[in-house]
From TrEMBL:
One of its GO terms (cellular component) is cytosol. One of its GO terms (biological process) is phenylacetate catabolic process. This is Phenylacetate-CoA oxygenase. GO terms for molecular function: phenylacetyl-CoA 1,2-epoxidase activity. It comes from the Bacteria. It holds the Pfam family PaaA_PaaC.
């Protein structure tokens, strides 16, 4: 059994049955696992993977909306959008920090993203063509993110669970600002209503894909649920999202683009049509419409920010040096 955290432990480490069952018992008792606690290497890796992908999603997720900051239709909309995009940058930073507690550096994670090795949510590989897309992203993408992330506030790993609390509060504001944009458009001129419907048509199915493959195809789902990293399966969360969102579309007079959608009065759930998994796989494997642009733009932003990182390091070094000036020299 490990006496310390797992930083530096390699993946070939074998773990005794006793160690694994003691760990599982802690998880089952709903004890939070903290950075220096012993943990199975698989648990640590699963978290690094999921938290890293989540952080990258927040950072790449700034790009499609950032595209509209200069074109927001009013000052009020511009202020709200700026604040939202800034929040997403903040979410990425909390998440990178949470992942760092598991022994992986931010530089390593960034390198993985920019080299195309790391995944980020498929949803951010679709283009934002009109202002209504900003409404649809807030309403649907943040709506899906909240559905997925509220249970993560109860994740067994302490730093991830705690980061999620603030993230979810902010996502809830984002969802409302998006829905409010959609509501204004849906109640506007015929052209505006068409724009809102067109955005819903394009963002609906990709939003359902955010929840990942069907449970039967989810490679990590079962183990992540046993470790209480995930509390609900991909299909359960997708179903909750559909059930919450369809009435919101109806309320503003928009139509969900799924001819097979029907309400089952017995279960209280909506049955939905099949998702295009071929499209999902293409997007996840780097061949979506915007994958290349997103990585190119992210890399450009990273390169453009190099001087800021250098200046911050030089400033920190200067401050540290001034604090270590010998007493006589300071007098
Ligand atoms: N896109 O075995 P599972 C946001 C991958 S944040 C790309 O089911 P798992 C805020 C999966 O990674 C949005 N890849 O995996 C915002 C795995 O690949 P791997 C992000 C996907 O981890 C709003 C493989 O497929 N949220 O939107 C996707 O148990 C607006 C097999 O899948 C999070 O990351 C996908 N959609 O379940 C920002 C939440 N789905 O690693 C800006 C935390 C699956 O083996 C604007 N993450 N894959 O190579 C999670 O809850 C989970 O990781 C899931 C996937 C549910 C995403």
């Amino acid at each position: 059994m490990y006496s310390q955290g797992l930083i530096g432990v390699d993946s070939s480490t074998t773990e005794s049955e006793e160690f694994l069952s003691l760990f599982q018992a802690r998880v089952d008792r709903e004890e939070k696992i903290e950075p220096n606690d012993p943990m199975p290497e698989g648990y640590r890796r699963t978290l690094v993977r999921q938290i890293g992908q989540h952080a990258h999603s927040e950072i790449v997720g700034m790009l499609p909306e950032g595209n509209w900051i200069t074109r927001a239709p009013t000052l009020r909309r511009k202020i709200a959008l700026l604040a939202k995009v800034q929040d997403e940058g903040g979410h990425g930073l909390y998440l990178y920090s949470a992942a760092e507690t598991l022994g992986v550096s931010r530089e390593q994670m960034t390198e993985e993203l920019l080299s195309g090795k790391a995944k980020y949510s498929s949803i951010f590989n679709y283009p934002t063509l009109t202002w209504a897309d900003i409404g649809a992203i807030g309403w649907l993408v943040d709506g899906a993110a909240i559905m997925n992330q509220i249970p993560l506030c109860r994740c067994s790993y302490g730093p991830y669970a705690r980061a999620m609390i603030r993230v979810c509060k902010e996502e809830s504001f984002h969802q409302r600002q998006g829905y409010e944009i959609m509501m204004a458009l849906a109640r506007g001129s015929d052209e505006q209503k068409e724009m809102a419907q067109d955005a819903l048509n394009r963002w609906w199915w990709p939003s359902l894909m955010m929840f990942g493959p069907h449970d039967g195809e989810s490679a990590h789902g079962e183990q992540s649920m046993a470790w209480k990293i995930k509390r609900f399966s991909n299909d359960e969360l997708r179903q909750k999202f559909i059930t919450a969102t369809v009435p919101q579309a109806e309320f503003i007079g928009l139509t969900v683009p799924d001819p097979d959608l029907k309400f089952n009065a017995e279960t209280g759930l909506y049955e939905h049509g099949e998702i295009d998994w071929v499209e999902f796989k293409a997007v996840v494997s780097g061949n979506g419409r915007m994958n290349r642009d997103r990585i190119r733009d992210r890399k450009q932003a990273h390169d453009d920010g190099a001087w800021v990182r250098e200046a911050a390091l030089a400033h920190a070094a200067k401050r540290a040096a001034s604090r270590t000036v010998p007493q006589e020299a300071a007098e």
